[in-house]
Amino acid sequence: MEETEEIREVEDPISRPVLEGSCILWTGALFADGRGCKYVAKGKSMTASRWAYMERHGLEEEDIRGKVVSAVCFNKRCVNPKHLYLNGSPEWRFGSGSTNPNSKLTANDVSDIRRDYRKAQGQGVNNTGNANELMEKYGISRTHLSKITRRETWKHVV
């Protein structure tokens, strides 16, 4: 009988487990982003890697709620239990605001965007023209600009 492996929780990327063996690719349904999709009870679904990790360690969804299951191989379809580990919350993984490595903006940029957008509204300026100027100046999309001005993103910035 195989000894139960200790659940590994990794706080930083340097502590990731070493890549062992080949990937085992999920052959079932996929989410739109290419991750494996495992259907569970009552029409609910979860990533196949999360399901495989839970199965391997005998865990329930509540046991790892708020944690992200990642694969050391960075393969979205990999369900090899030796490649999977817990690495903290989604915010840790992706960052939020300026801590996100893909962010084009800083907190100061967001404050300036909101200020300029409000100022233009108060002066009766055509918001489409103002929005186009802001999008071009900061290199962001209309959707991103809209989310910033409605405080759906960058909520922590005044």
Explain briefly what this protein structure is.
The protein has helices spanning 48-57, 90-94, 107-122, 127-138, 142-149; strands at residues 37-39, 45-47, 69-71, 84-86. The chain has a two-stranded antiparallel ribbon. It contains 5 helices and 4 strands; from the N terminus they run ββαββαααα.
Could you describe the 3D structure shown?
With 158 residues, the chain is mainly α. The protein has two domains: 13-93, no CATH class; 97-149. Helices cover 32% and strands 8% of the residues. The chain is built from five helices and four strands; from the N terminus they run ββαββαααα. It has helices spanning 48-57, 90-94, 107-122, 127-138, 142-149, and strands at residues 37-39, 45-47, 69-71, 84-86. The strands form two sheets. A two-stranded antiparallel ribbon has the order 1-2. It has a two-stranded antiparallel ribbon with strand order 3-4. β1 (37-39) and β2 (45-47) form a beta hairpin. The chain is elongated and about 60 Å long. The chain starts with 36 loop residues before the first strand and ends in a 9-residue tail after the last helix.
Features:
158 residues, mainly alpha, two-stranded antiparallel ribbon
Give the strand order of the largest sheet, numbering strands 1, 2, ... along the chain. Answer: 1-2
Q: Specify the helix fraction band.
A: 25-40%
| Overall tally of structural domains | 2
Nearest-integer average pLDDT: 79
Q: What is the end-to-end distance?
A: 57 Å
Largest sheet: 2 strands, antiparallel
Counting DSSP H or I runs of 4 or more residues, the number of helices is 5
Task: Tell me the number of strands.
Answer: 4
- The radius of gyration is 21 Å
Query: How would the global form be characterised?
Result: elongated
> What is the helix/strand order?
EEHEEHHHH
Q: Assign the structural class, choosing from mainly alpha, mainly beta, alpha/beta, alpha+beta, or little secondary structure.
A: mainly alpha
Spans of at least 5 consecutive residues with low confidence: 1-15
Beta strand %: 5-15%
